[in-house]
Design brief:
TIM Barrel; alpha/beta
């Protein structure tokens, strides 16, 4: 299993410049401790620092060696798919074949008005622009340059709670990144099955599945909760005021950390147990953890990345290797 991190580059305190420098240091450390993937999201709001993931990832490419660099996500509905391809093809050349695109609708809608699109065209825009992105990826006779080092440049589809999106990813022969940020994970198992069935129906070989979730790691579960809850609550309550959610309680937060909850907050051993528990449900190929939900102290994020890479990932890989050997 590939294990990695994704972030939206939250900015709730300090300067944008300092947050960006901290983010680049986080990517460098993730590479150094042996994590497989680092994803950076796209937002167009004052509380997030990243609006151009490919630029950030290109900066990180020069100071990393092996970690894969992906958007998380690229909101292609409101972007130019040709330009998205060119940006990530350029990143692929800089990184010597480590770039990926995670294409999605996005969980915020600010980009639509910003770039002159109508939200009423939400679904049609996504379908048309995804088709165009895949067309320029597969054909080198359209005058779209540069061409990437990888052929084809990996494109994943990010899916939340939409079964049609899971089926579309499978029928197109694309890997799927399934976001689980609430509820019981087993309720999402039909999405994985739908994606695999559609992949077969589309005449494609097996395509990978990633589970993407919120969480935080510290040496003890108590420390993980104490460090992460204030920032998580501040972020969720701020978004909740925009969307009509009730304020997040500490009891709700703690409940989400139980084995059958959605969040991965706890000690390294607890995170290992939960990844393996979900692997029994999904048999997924990749796990990405969003640890900076709200702005956390930089030193604590670095320590969490270190724990994920040096303690969690090796134990998960060892356990899955033992399971495979015993089959």
């Amino acid at each position: 299993m590939e294990i990695g991190i994704y972030t939206f580059g939250e900015l709730t305190s300090g300067t944008a410049g300092q947050r960006m420098r901290d983010l680049l240091e986080e990517i460098e450390l993730a590479d150094q401790v042996g994590l497989d993937v680092f994803g950076v999201g796209e937002h167009h709001r004052p509380d997030f620092v990243v609006s151009a993931p490919a630029v950030v990832l290109a900066a990180a490419a020069r100071t990393t060696k092996r970690i894969r660099l992906t958007s998380a996500v690229s909101v292609i509905s409101s972007d130019d798919p040709v330009r998205v391809f060119q940006d990530f093809a350029t990143l692929d050349l800089i990184s010597q074949g480590r770039a990926e695109i995670m294409a999605g609708r996005g969980s915020f809608v600010e980009s639509f008005g910003l770039f002159g699109y109508d939200l009423q065209d939400y679904d049609a825009l996504f379908a048309a622009k995804l088709e165009r992105l895949l067309e320029v990826r597969s054909r080198d006779d359209l005058g779209v340059f540069p061409r990437p080092e990888q052929d084809p440049l990996p494109v994943w589809i990010a899916v939340g709670g939409n079964p049609e999106s899971a089926a579309r990813a499978g029928l197109l022969g694309l890997p799927m990144a399934l976001a689980i940020i609430g509820g019981y994970p087993e309720r999402f198992a039909p999405f994985a099955e739908l994606h695999r069935r559609a992949t077969t129906e589309g005449g494609h070989d097996y395509r990978p599945l990633s589970i993407n979730s919120h969480g935080f790691i510290a040496q003890t579960s108590q420390e993980a909760v104490r460090t992460s809850f204030p920032a998580f609550k501040a972020m969720m309550d701020r978004i909740g005021r925009e969307r009509g959610w009730s304020p997040l309680s500490r009891e709700q937060y703690l409940a989400s950390h139980e084995l059958r909850g959605a969040n991965f907050v706890g000690s390294p051993d607890q995170i290992v147990e939960k990844i393996l528990f979900q692997h029994d449900i999904f048999n997924h190929d990749r796990f990405l953890l969003q640890m900076s939900v709200g702005t956390l102290p930089h030193k604590d994020v670095l320590r969490a990345i270190e724990l994920l890479g040096t303690e969690v990932a090796p134990k998960v890989r060892e356990a899955l290797a033992a399971q495979a050997a015993n089959r």
